[in-house]
Design brief:
alpha+beta
Length: 67
């Protein structure tokens, strides 16, 4: 399991597509709405599962690819 910080230069969709099972990517909290919608769409299109967890204190959202 590896944890990476989101690179703002890359599209969210591309970042999610490049994730392997058990990878974690940390996004800024400001991306929450578009991030959750994109994770849902990419998961449906590619037959994958993603879980998101918000940390309000750190102001980040962690995305884990679970399948």
């Amino acid at each position: 399991m590896s944890e990476k910080i989101y690179d703002n230069r890359l599209p969210i969709r591309e970042t999610l597509r490049d994730m392997s099972v058990d990878d974690i990517v940390v996004f800024p909290a400001e991306k929450t709405s578009v991030l959750r919608a994109t994770a849902s769409n990419v998961g449906l299109e590619m037959g994958r599962e993603y879980k998101t967890r918000t940390n309000r204190e750190e102001r980040v959202v962690r995305v884990v690819r679970t399948a």
